[in-house]
Amino acid sequence: MIEQSLLLTDAYELSMLEAYRAHGMAEIAVFELFFRKLPPERGFLLAAGLEQAVEFLQNLRFGAEELDWLAASGLFAPDFVASLAEFRFTGDVDAVPEGTVVFADEPVLRVIAPLPQAQLVETRLLNLVHFQTVIATKAARVVLAAPGKQLVDFGLRRAHGAEAGLLAARASYLAGFGGTATLQASRDFGIPAIGTMAHSYVQAHDDEAAAFEYFARVRPRVLTLLIDTYNTERGARIVAALAPRLAAEGVTVGAVRLDSGDLAAHARAVRAILDDAGQPNIRIFASGGLDEYSVQALCNADAPIEGFGVGTALTTSSDVPALDCAYKLQEYAGTPRRKRSEGKATWPGRKQVYRRYAPDGTILSDTVALLDELVAGEPLLQPAMRGGLPVPSLTGLAEARTRAAASLAQLPPPLRRLEKADVPVEISPGLRALAARLDRDNAA
């Protein structure tokens, strides 16, 4: 379903592998994936993408066509290319389970493997975990803005490529959306497929009422009619008149969809038309350039809208399309390593994140500590792979969706209201001491 070619990487990954091989550098390395900082528009992130990351690592290998291309490219020595035929991932992975709220400076995934293996997977792991975390976080904000509302992913047509559209559907469902308009996402991930109709369908008919009636007879189940092609209120009156006749034939109009104009004002007018016609059970569904802020505004205004389709802003995470995400070496051959670049220094060694909760169950603070430190709190990173294979306890999308709902409920109230708030992320004394020691050794 998703492209797994090992050529889907940066050229310098293979260049480094060739140099590692030439110098016999294949001892165990520890890399950690983390988000350096959060942008002003985000107070939390929702971890996602682990299932695809594990799938990638488990199936990691160079195919014959890829090896032939590498050999013909002249980019690498023939003996190095030949050695790639047996390349496999045999290492361990620990990760924060999908659907867990995370913050800056916290490792969300750790790879422990021979250096060439751990190095080669950098680009694709970042690609998979970063993208789904970006979209899951955006979707979570929409979920928080519209509690109890039906939310549907409408974003494939504006997604930055087919894989992005599929993984955005997965990430948004993980975060709490109820369905997707993308059929392949429904097939691949078991997400409910939800669709209505387009304006072109209505325009293709000479009469709007006939368009609604013909569609209803062919698509009688979960019927939603798009009523704003010409005039929203007129469309609502047509549906109000048509609904009793369809009901007599066993066809129920479930909802009408609004896609343009002042959605709150139109929704109130449409609600009044439908209620006056004795159709209080026909729901109102809205779409059209929505994001968490516009959805929240409609909910705060008590607009009579029961569901929302969110597209472009979701699938592109238009306000924050990228995060400062990194995958860095923290240990090699048993020795902790620390990057000291200005503004990009890392915390060395193998680490764990410990979460503490307030008496009301909300997240109080996190502590990033070395694995051998004794720190109070719930450890977040859990085993995901051992010896190149997924651990039996690794959960899938359904469990991640349940976890996300629980994790979002643990956010402090300001973050649930989409306000800016900080959850303290503390760096343990042991970790600070190790970093200081490495800095002194490096300076000497």
From TrEMBL:
<dbReference type="GO" id="GO:0004516">
    <property type="term" value="F:nicotinate phosphoribosyltransferase activity"/>
</dbReference>
<dbReference type="InterPro" id="IPR006405">
    <property type="entry name" value="Nic_PRibTrfase_pncB"/>
</dbReference>
<keyword id="KW-0662">Pyridine nucleotide biosynthesis</keyword>
<comment type="similarity">
    <text>Belongs to the NAPRTase family.</text>
</comment>
<feature type="domain" description="Nicotinate/nicotinamide phosphoribosyltransferase">
    <location>
        <begin position="150"/>
        <end position="331"/>
    </location>
</feature>
<keyword id="KW-0808">Transferase</keyword>
<dbReference type="GO" id="GO:0034355">
    <property type="term" value="P:NAD+ biosynthetic process via the salvage pathway"/>
</dbReference>
<dbReference type="InterPro" id="IPR040727">
    <property type="entry name" value="NAPRTase_N"/>
</dbReference>
<dbReference type="GO" id="GO:0005829">
    <property type="term" value="C:cytosol"/>
</dbReference>
<feature type="domain" description="Nicotinate phosphoribosyltransferase N-terminal">
    <location>
        <begin position="7"/>
        <end position="129"/>
    </location>
</feature>
<dbReference type="Pfam" id="PF17767">
    <property type="entry name" value="NAPRTase_N"/>
</dbReference>
<dbReference type="InterPro" id="IPR013785">
    <property type="entry name" value="Aldolase_TIM"/>
</dbReference>
<comment type="function">
    <text>Catalyzes the first step in the biosynthesis of NAD from nicotinic acid, the ATP-dependent synthesis of beta-nicotinate D-ribonucleotide from nicotinate and 5-phospho-D-ribose 1-phosphate.</text>
</comment>
<dbReference type="Pfam" id="PF04095">
    <property type="entry name" value="NAPRTase"/>
</dbReference>
<keyword id="KW-0328">Glycosyltransferase</keyword>
<keyword id="KW-0597">Phosphoprotein</keyword>
<comment type="pathway">
    <text>Cofactor biosynthesis; NAD(+) biosynthesis; nicotinate D-ribonucleotide from nicotinate: step 1/1.</text>
</comment>
<dbReference type="InterPro" id="IPR041525">
    <property type="entry name" value="N/Namide_PRibTrfase"/>
</dbReference>
<keyword id="KW-0436">Ligase</keyword>
<dbReference type="InterPro" id="IPR036068">
    <property type="entry name" value="Nicotinate_pribotase-like_C"/>
</dbReference>
<dbReference type="InterPro" id="IPR007229">
    <property type="entry name" value="Nic_PRibTrfase-Fam"/>
</dbReference>
<dbReference type="GO" id="GO:0016757">
    <property type="term" value="F:glycosyltransferase activity"/>
</dbReference>
<protein>
    <recommendedName>
        <fullName>Nicotinate phosphoribosyltransferase</fullName>
        <ecNumber>6.3.4.21</ecNumber>
    </recommendedName>
</protein>
